[in-house]
Amino acid sequence: MSGILYLCATPIGNLEDITLRVLRILQEVDLIAAEDTRNSIKLLNHFNIKTPMTSYHEHNKIDKGKYLIARLQQDSNIALITDAGTPGISDPGEELVKMCHEVGIQVTSLPGAAACITALTLSGLSTDRFAFEAFLPVNKKEKQAVLKELKKETRTIILYEAPHRFLQTLEKLKKELGNRRVTVCRELTKKHETVFLTTLEKAMEYYAEHEPRGECVLIIEGRSRKEMIEEEQMKWKETSIEEHMDIYEKQGIDRKEAMKLVARDRGISKRDVYDTLHRKGHSGI
What we know:
This protein has helices spanning about 20-30, 35-45, 60-75, 95-105, 115-120, 140-150, 165-175, 200-210, 225-235, 240-250, 255-265, 270-280, and strands at about 5-10, 30-35, 55, 80, 105-110, 130-135, 155-160, 180-185, 195-200, 215-220. It is α/β, with parallel strands linked by helices.
């Protein structure tokens, strides 16, 4: 028999957002693993929880992870909490979950606050489909690669950013993605919560004059599929239909299928392709 790892969501601001189930589990487990014990002790003291606590963060996740696995295998129950929100979302909790699954330890998640979902529901942008990117990479090459991917993203995009990098990130987003609609969410669930519906360009202008404070969540509209299709079709305007056909036929694609592909690429009907080739006496038509 082994213990259970409980992923306990904690408030992202307002302490009243903690669930009754999380409070019970934090009191009942043998140990609480916290991302920052100095921060989490305030939460535990507020609810008069006396359970022993240990640190588990990005810089000790491997060694401390092995220790926590050993405790779990000795039938201890452990609660994992992050500084705010749901463990495993943009934090080292995912590593501990993987380690538990590898050795057959039960993991369960106690749902609650998550800044990404809270901001998305407040954004006024589409919530049907979304892509959570968390923080952009610090490495310049990796960051550029991610931004290029996001340029083609049709889903609503969710990003986290720290205040000291916020304006720079807005500038990079505007450069790569264009002037998209964006909702900037700050101080979520707190007294001075702000939800700013704007565009990347106007957000740049505003935060150039108003210093951003607190961590922000950016909700950015995805790219229009129609716009992407039109841009793709424009690429073929300088290529004749005969040349376009030749590209596919050189790949071994038969004429009938090549005509379908050319029609799709150019946003025209297969009949238009046929008529053009026929008028110009293209062989095989």
